[in-house]
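subagent[fold] <- orchestrator: predict structure for attached chain, return tokens only, no commentary.
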Amino acid sequence: MASSVQNRRLAMYLEAEKAVLMGQSYTIGNRQLTRASLAEIRATIDNLIAGGATIDGETNVRRMAKRVVFMD
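subagent[fold] -> orchestrator:
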């Protein structure tokens, strides 16, 4: 189960991903510069989701039904 800290980190990393996708690379002369690494951001997002973090704060808990049969 993810903590609220992990959920907040996931939200921040998703915002960072959006910022990078909207153009955080620029060119000076013949050099191409990037302010943030999209690959690192995606890897961290994947790790947070694998750890159970969610955007809406809900947990991804599997609920299992069990049936009990009483025998004499």
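orchestrator: received. Logging for downstream: Residues 4-21 form the longest helix (18 residues). Residues 24 and 35 are 6 Å apart (CA to CA).
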